[in-house]
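Weekly sync, protein design subgroup
Attendees: M.S., D.O., the rotation student, P.L. (late)

Item 1: inverse folding check
M.S. brought a backbone from last month's batch and wanted to see whether the design step gives back something sensible before we order anything. D.O. pointed out we never logged the input encoding, so this time it goes straight into the notes. Structure tokens as presented (64 positions):
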């Protein structure tokens, strides 16, 4: 059974990754999109970090 957090992250990460990649490519033409792409990459990295910490938390629970 996957937790709701994992389901949420499995949906968010690919979508965020696709959008941030697209925006990064487009930002070569538009400077304003560079800020947006920076925000998108920050969200992506944060969600990956949360996912890793969540999995570590599950492992710690299993040990104890």
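Designed sequence read out in the meeting:
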């Amino acid at each position: 059974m996957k937790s709701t957090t994992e389901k949420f992250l499995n949906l968010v990460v690919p979508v965020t990754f696709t959008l941030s990649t697209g925006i990064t490519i487009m930002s070569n033409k538009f400077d304003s999109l560079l800020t947006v792409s920076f925000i998108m990459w920050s969200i992506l990295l944060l969600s990956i970090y949360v996912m890793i910490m969540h999995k570590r938390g599950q492992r710690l629970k299993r040990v104890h």
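Discussion: The chain has one domain: 4-63. The two ends are 20 Å apart (CA to CA).
Action: P.L. to compare against the previous round before Friday.
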